[in-house]
Structure of Alpha/beta hydrolase:
Amino acid sequence: MTAVVFVHGTGVREPALSALVGRVTAGLAAQRGGLDIVPYDWGTAHGATLAAGGASLPPRSGTTRGTGAGPASLGPSDETTAAWAVLYDDPYAELASAAAASGPVVERPPGTVPPQQRIRALLTALAARGDEPGADVGPGLARAATDLAAHPL
């Protein structure tokens, strides 16, 4: 019997792992019978855990992210839906919120380059190299770098 070792991706944990292994097993069985599917759950023992309910950035005072953090009238799925709606409208919303809460602007010493100009210069240089630096992940690197250079925080 042929064994197939299934190694899950970085974001997979139980109970989603069992469901995923079931789908992979069913899909492979449909293609070829007699396979022994051996799942390897490395994430539970060695992977990162999701803190703050999986929020990518900690909540800012007066905002909600995660179960129980918002108004009593909103349930967990309402909060999730509202958070995703904001991100669909503005994919940079969480980053802009974090940047806005970073503190007061201080005067820079003469001759220093503002952080946003350095980021824009690095992204522009990356875009000028085309898709070659990211060839292993597929096309689109140059376009993504150009888009990001237009919106530095």
User: Anything to note?
Assistant: The first strand starts at residue 2 and ends at 7. The radius of gyration is 22 Å. The chain has three domains: 1-49, 55-103, 115-149.
